[in-house]
Amino acid sequence: MEKEWFATWFDTSYYHVLYKNRNNEEAKVFIANLANYLALPPHAEVLDLACGKGRHSITLNELGYAVHGVDLSANSIAEASKHEKEGLTFGVQDMRLPIPNRSFTAVFNLFTSFGYFDDTSDNLKVLQSVRQMLDDKGLLIIDFMNATRVINTLVTEESKTVDGIDFSIQRNYDGTHIFKDIHFEDNGRDYHFTERVQALRFEDFQSLLSESRFEILRTFGDFNLSPFEAETSDRLILIAQKN
């Protein structure tokens, strides 16, 4: 059986090369803003769902939470695990499946780590899994792209050179998914990967969360937690509570 695109691309070293210059300071400010708003109890147990190499997990732990970070990419978790210490652990996990015998005060799903699937029923599997792992009245925080703005401002072609590798990137929207085709050559070999994310809007999340018995408490439109505006906001950030 062929692997799903994210199971292949996210587990390559090239994924981390292409995105190595992400703004970590901006991410830290965002997490600090979220923590201040949520006011979770000290030492609360939280889950960083689809944590990658753990940059958000590390910040959450620095803010005083007991953090478990999970990702499908074994290579990413191997890197993240180098930062393990008391109150900061990592594991390989498919987000569609609950972690056995674990419960959390809050689950964080950050940096557009949702909607990777071809089958939209998998979105419900993720939310049902999260619900199963959350304490009563536990919180789910989703940070997603603002699909409306991304589609309206889509950069269809782009080139980037990182660590001596020339990446050629094409983007398109087919009415349901936003695609990013990535082509490059390294050591005499041609590579091609495709990122594919569902273009979920606020109304889509409303429906998914309602069906999964979550109540949306608040929405924000950027990392400074400004109000969400469908046409102009950079992000769609949702704070939802388990009913």
Main attributes of the structure:
single chain, about 240 residues, alpha/beta, Rossmann fold, seven-stranded mixed sheet, four-stranded antiparallel sheet, 11 strands, globular
Rg over CA atoms, rounded to whole Å, is 18 Å
Rounded mean pLDDT score: 95
Which strand order does the major sheet show? 3-2-1-4-5-11-10
CATH topology of the largest domain: Rossmann fold
DSSP strand tally:
11
Per CATH, the class of the largest domain reads Alpha Beta
Instruction: Please write the string of helix (H) and strand (E) elements.
Output: HHHEHEHEEHEHEEEEHEE
Which regions are unreliable across 5 or more consecutive residues at pLDDT < 50? none
- For the record, the CATH architecture of the largest domain stands as 3-Layer(aba) Sandwich
**Number of helices in the DSSP assignment:** 8
- Biggest sheet layout: 7 strands, mixed
Measured as a percent range, the helix fraction is 25-40%
Strand content: 25-35%
Q: Mind sketching the topology for me?
A:
Layout: H1 5-9, H2 13-18, H3 24-38, E1 45-49, H4 55-62, E2 66-71, H5 74-80, E3 88-92, E4 104-109, H6 121-133, E5 134-145, H7 147-152, E6 157-162, E7 165-173, E8 177-186, E9 189-198, H8 202-211, E10 214-220, E11 235-242
Helix pairs in contact: 3-4
Describe this structure in words.
With 243 residues, the protein is an alpha/beta fold. It folds into 2 domains: 5-145 and 200-242, Vaccinia Virus protein VP39 (Rossmann fold, 3-Layer(aba) Sandwich); 150-195, no CATH class. Helix content is 29%, strand content 35%. The protein is built from 8 helices and 11 strands. The protein has helices spanning 5-9, 13-18, 24-38, 55-62, 74-80, 121-133, 147-152, 202-211, and strands spanning 45-49, 66-71, 88-92, 104-109, 134-145, 157-162, 165-173, 177-186, 189-198, 214-220, 235-242. The strands form 2 sheets. Strands 3-2-1-4-5-11-10 form a 7-stranded mixed sheet, sandwiched between helices. A hairpin with a 2-residue loop joins strand 6 (157-162) and strand 7 (165-173). Helix 3 (24-38) packs across helix 4 (55-62). It is globular, with a radius of gyration of 18 Å.
